[in-house]
Design a protein that fits this description.
The structure holds two protein chains of two kinds. By secondary structure, chain A is mostly helical. Helices cover about 75% and strands about 0% of the residues of chain A. The model of chain A has no long low-confidence stretch (mean pLDDT about 90). The chains are: A mainly alpha, B alpha/beta.
């Protein structure tokens, strides 16, 4: 209870974080309650194609195949959040472990991993993702894994810096003197104490993952079997002059969601900054 | 000398640590600069002996302490405990070595991970070293240990996080936790310099009492000469990685022979207020430990330095009763 109160107080202390957290709550509500707030299945090809917004049956209109735009938006949230969570989870996990190993062990391991990070940072991510999707197919699972595998270097860099400074701290030396081996020290002392900047970065990483998935879909390389906002923009592109609503609402949804994640990330960064009172503890 | 070596419980043999200087020029010609942090230290200690190690900041006393617990590898030399090389011991059975040798750190506020409760912090070493049958027994051991150390109510303290306790409490816990492993060799690296004056005596007494109970040898690293004299059997004075004077506490403090020790002690006000002594001024900064020598390291600041001092590092001179000092001018 004490912890929950403390977290709530921390969230309230920063407006960006508060706004971001409320936004994420709304997104989560949409994900869970999707069937309750929509009338049609998003994949249902209805009889009325290209209905303009404002229609009593379809408040946001329909696309060229008669799919309800509102339903697509709502169900698209599921896809986007799933991509965001799975991709950034993979990215955070890889980043924390690889960065932790590099920073804590130092020496050759650090040199090799640092160079690897630099190489990955230099390669344009979108190009790499395109290449892999072209090679292995564009199922949503592939896309999530690929985004995760290409976005870990920034997390690894943060974690490495944390590990570098943490390994000189007395409590790490003390654990060593107590007979803990290096794996135990990495898992029990370095990672739990150094993970917060990575968490903040991961929130921003979620926004980037959503954007990357939307970009892929927009290029026609998304998973055609799922409803996604990028796909909506891609579909609406050719009707832009006659039925603007197909692409526009998808675009707006992407913008708002990115905004929410960026606000949360910035807020977290600010709150976890050691200069911001004692909230980082 | 050789007979004495065999008898000594802890035998530090010619231990040195050299660090290469970072950021040197690429393709630098000639000899690379090396920091000689600890430079050929040999000491012997009996079981249950308390050795005070004093010197100014940066003289390598903490580095020596860290080598003794093997948080750092010596570049040269070895430490024998009861005739067994720690170099081999840590390779063969690192846990046994960790149980034998323990360290108490200077900063109690940073000795424990901020994310765990005191209970987790105290139980972990017990678990790692398989002390106690199960968690219940280990919990009981922790409670008993805390209560014996004057930390009551123990159950309440076990539930707390490190940042909820005071420095004195944390340092007690640090000492008690080390003692749970029954070490025979304890290094105390300025254990009270960050604490309030009011709790210092209690902490020191506790450390000494516990080590006396287990007949453990203690290396007490400090720059507080008065305190070191009070608690130590023998004192070693370090300067720039070397021991310049070594003897019983009284020999070193009352009858210092090396000019550096003389200056250090004359500047220490709290030893005896009645004693009339003029403080000896030392000129200049301590020289860097980067490639020191070839002469006496103290020669540049020494009031008695002669041309001879700059040529060769002085040998240790025996002043009787095990009191030794490294200065050419002694006895002349």
């Amino acid at each position: 209870m004490k912890l929950i109160k403390k977290i709530l107080r921390t969230i309230k202390s920063d407006r960006l974080l508060l706004a971001g957290c409320i936004g994420i709550c709304i997104l989560l509500f949409i994900v869970v309650a999707a069937p309750l707030i929509t009338e049609y299945d998003a994949k249902l090809f209805g009889p009325d194609a290209l209905v303009a917004p404002g229609d009593p049956a379809h408040p946001l209109g329909t696309n060229h195949l008669g799919q309800d735009i509102w339903s697509m938006l709502i169900y698209g949230t599921r896809t986007s959040l799933m991509v965001a969570v799975v991709a950034s989870f993979i990215s955070a996990l890889l980043g924390i472990i690889i960065g932790g190993i590099a920073g804590f062990f130092g020496g050759w391991a650090d040199r090799i991993i640092s160079e690897l990070i630099n190489v990955f940072l230099m390669i344009p991510t979108l190009f790499l993702v395109l290449l892999i999707v072209a090679m292995f197919g564009s199922s949503i699972l592939n896309i999530m894994i690929v985004i995760g595998l290409t976005s870990w270097p920034s997390n690894a860099k943060l974690m490495r810096a944390q590990a570098l400074s943490l390994r000189e701290r007395t409590f790490v030396k003390s654990a060593q003197a107590m007979g803990e081996n290096r794996r135990q020290i990495l898992m029990k002392y370095i990672i739990p104490n150094g993970v917060f900047p990575v968490v903040a970065n991961t929130t921003v990483g979620m926004a980037n993952a959503i954007l990357l998935e939307a970009s892929l879909s927009f290029l026609g390389l998304g998973d055609p079997t799922v409803i996604s906002w990028g796909q909506m923009v891609y579909d609406g592109k050719q009707y832009l002059t006659s039925a603007w609503w197909i692409a526009a609402f998808g675009g707006v949804a992407i913008c708002l969601t990115l905004l929410i994640f960026y606000m949360t990330g910035d807020g977290l960064n600010h709150v976890l900054n050691p200069k911001h009172g004692k909230a980082g503890e | 000398m050789s007979e004495q070596k065999k008898k000594a419980y802890i035998d530090i043999q010619d231990v040195s640590v050299f660090y290469p200087v970072k950021g040197g020029k690429l393709f630098a010609q000639g000899e690379k600069p090396i920091v000689k942090a600890v430079n050929g230290i040999s000491l012997q200690m009996e079981k249950g002996e308390v050795l005070g190690l004093i010197g100014e900041s940066g003289c390598g006393k903490s580095t020596l302490g860290r080598i003794l617990v093997r948080l750092e590898e010596p570049t040269r030399g070895d430490v024998l405990i009861d005739g067994v090389s720690t170099h081999e011991l840590i390779r063969k059975d690192p846990k046994k070595f960790r149980r034998m040798v323990q360290i108490v750190f200077q900063n109690p506020f940073d000795t424990f991970t901020p994310r765990d409760t005191i209970e987790k912090i105290m139980m972990r070493p017990l678990k790692i070293h398989n002390i106690g049958k199960d968690d219940q027994e280990r919990h009981k051991m922790c409670v008993e240990s805390l209560e014996a150390g004057g930390l009551r109510p123990a159950e309440d303290i076990l539930r707390r996080y490190p940042h909820e306790l005071s420095g004195g409490q944390l340092q007690r816990i640090s000492i008690l936790r080390s003692m749970l492993l029954n070490p025979t060799f304890i290094i105390a690296d300025e254990p009270v310099s960050m604490l309030d004056v009011s709790v210092r005596a209690d902490i020191i007494n506790m450390l000494l009492e516990l080590s006396r109970e287990k007949n453990a040898s203690v290396v007490f690293i400090s720059h507080d000469i008065a305190l070191t004299r009070y608690i130590s059997d023998r004192i070693a004075v370090m300067y720039l990685g070397r021991i310049v004077e070594y003897g019983t506490a009284d020999q070193v403090v009352k009858n210092p022979q090396h000019p550096y020790t003389q200056a250090l002690i004359s500047n220490c006000a709290s030893i005896d207020p009645d004693e009339e002594s003029a403080a000896i001024d030392i000129q200049g900064e301590p020289p860097t430990p980067i490639n020191p020598g070839p002469g006496c390291f103290f020669a540049e600041r020494c009031p008695h330095a002669t041309q001879e001092c700059l040529k060769k590092y002085p040998e240790y001179r025996d002043l009787g009763d095990g009191h030794i000092a490294a200065c050419m001018h002694i006895g002349k």
